[in-house]
Specification:
By secondary structure, the protein is α/β, with parallel strands linked by helices. Helix content is about 40%, strand content about 15%. β10 and β11 form a beta hairpin. α2 (about 50-65) crosses α10 and α5 (about 145-160) runs parallel beside α6.
Length: about 350
C-alpha cells in the first residue's frame, strides 16, 4: 500500500492538483501544462477480444473529451502484432504525445518503448497488462489473481453440483504467454484447483485466439477421450467459444462446465442457454475512465496518488486494481444488465429469448 492517501473522492482527485504521489516523476505532459491542447495516445493490443473496440476505446475517448474537450487523441490497435504496436507508439512520440496509455501486445518487448517515452519526458500508463522491467507512471487493471481464483472456484462448484468432481479430468486453456495477466489468472486458478481435480491437459493459448483454443481442445479430446473430460477452465470468453465449438464437433450431447472472462455478449447468451457455466465480469467502464482521468491529470502536470503498488520486476508501480465479479446465470440481471453493460433486449434477442424468460430477464 502507498504511504499516504489523498482524502478526496477518487474521480475528483485524479484531476485536481495537490494530491501528490510518492512515485518518481516522468516529467508530466507538456501540452495541458502550458495551456495548450494536450495530446493523449491510447494503444490497444488486439481486436479478437470484442471488449477493446466495443468498450475500452469509446469509453476512454469519451471520458477524455468530457474532461478536456480540446484534447487530441491518437489511437491505434496493434491486431496482436508487437512490431505494429512499436510503430504506433513511436509515431505518437514523434507526433508529440503528452501522455501514452499502453496495453502492450508483448509486455516484455514494450519496455524499450516505455524508455523511449521516458527519454522525451512522456508519462506512460500501463493499461490492463503490466509492462515489466521498466519504470512508468501508473498501472490500471483488475486483481488478476482473483480472476483466476474465481474461475477455479466456479468450476469446482459446477463439478460438485453435477456430481462429477473426482470422476474425470479437466482441461485448462490459459491465456497468451506474452501477457503477464495470463500468468496471474493461471496462478489464481491453480491455487484453487490443485489437489482437488486432475488436470488432463493444460495449454497456453497464443494471442488469446479462439481458433487456437479450439485446436487445443480438439487435441485434448483426442488425447484424453471425450467421456474423460468433465470440465474446462478457459481464461476468457473467446477461447471458451473455441472450446465449445470443438466439443460440439466431437459430438458432446451435454457440455461439461466451462469458465470464461470479459462478459462478451455471446458468452452471456451461452450462459443463459447452458453452454457456458460462468464469466468474470470486469467493469471496463471504471477501468477506461480511471485511465482517462489519470491521463488528463498527467497532461496537466499533475500526478495523483494511487492506493496500491505493483512490483513489475524493476520498480513498484503506482496502481489501481479494480475488483472482478464472477457471473453465473442468476447474477446477470444484477451485474451486467444493472450496470448497463448490455441491455436485456440485446442479450435476449433471437434464440436466447426463451432462456431469458426462464431466467427472469424478460
Amino acid at each position: 500500500m502507498r504511504r499516504a492517501w489523498c482524502v478526496i473522492p477518487v474521480a475528483a482527485a485524479l484531476v485536481v492538483a495537490g494530491c501528490g504521489s510518492d512515485g518518481k516523476d516522468d516529467g508530466g505532459g507538456t501540452g495541458g501544462g502550458k495551456g495548450g491542447a494536450a495530446t493523449i495516445a491510447l494503444f490497444l493490443p488486439e481486436s479478437k477480444t470484442t471488449r477493446y473496440e466495443a468498450f475500452d476505446r469509446p469509453l476512454f475517448e469519451g471520458r477524455v473529451k468530457q474532461l478536456c474537450a480540446d484534447c487530441k487523441i491518437i489511437y491505434g490497435n496493434a491486431d496482436q502484432d508487437a512490431t505494429k504496436q512499436q510503430s504506433q507508439v513511436e509515431g505518437a512520440i514523434t507526433q508529440g504525445a503528452d501522455v501514452i496509455v499502453l496495453d502492450a501486445v508483448d509486455a516484455k518487448a514494450a519496455a524499450p518503448l516505455v524508455n523511449q517515452a521516458r527519454q522525451r519526458r512522456i508519462p506512460v500508463i500501463a493499461y490492463d497488462r503490466l509492462i515489466t522491467n521498466v519504470e512508468y507512471s501508473y498501472f490500471v487493471s483488475f486483481d488478476n489473481v482473483r480472476v483466476g481464483q474465481m474461475q477455479g472456484q466456479a468450476l469446482l462448484d459446477a463439478l460438485t453440483a453435477r456430481g462429477t468432481l473426482g470422476k474425470g479430468k479437466i482441461v485448462m486453456l490459459n491465456g497468451a504467454p506474452t501477457d503477464p495477466s495470463s500468468a496471474d489468472y493461471k496462478k489464481g486458478a491453480h491455487q484453487v484447483l490443485d489437489g482437488k481435480v486432475q488436470i488432463g491437459r493444460e495449454f497456453d493459448t497464443p494471442d488469446w485466439s479462439p481458433d487456437k483454443a479450439q485446436q487445443q481442445m480438439e487435441q485434448a479430446i483426442t488425447a484424453l477421450g471425450r467421456d474423460t473430460i468433465v470440465g474446462v477452465l478457459s481464461a476468457n470468453d473467446g477461447m471458451a467459444g473455441g472450446a465449445i465449438a470443438a466439443m460440439k464437433r466431437a459430438g458432446y450431447k451435454s457440455l461439461p462446465p466451462i469458465t470464461g472472462q470479459d462478459a462478451e455478449l455471446a458468452a452471456v447468451q451461452r450462459i443463459l442457454t447452458g453452454e457456458q457455466n460462468m464469466t468474470v465480469y470486469l467493469n471496463i467502464r471504471a477501468q477506461a475512465e480511471r485511465s482517462a482521468d489519470l491521463a488528463v491529470a498527467l497532461a496537466r502536470g499533475e500526478k495523483p496518488a494511487a492506493p496500491q503498488k505493483v512490483n513489475n520486476g524493476t520498480a513498484d508501480i503506482p496502481a489501481f486494481l479494480l475488483a472482478p465479479t464472477a457471473v453465473t446465470k442468476d447474477k446477470i440481471k444484477d451485474t451486467i444488465i444493472k450496470d448497463g453493460f448490455y441491455p436485456a433486449a440485446k442479450i435476449c434477442a433471437g434464440q436466447v429469448a426463451a432462456a431469458c424468460k426462464t431466467a427472469g430477464l424478460q
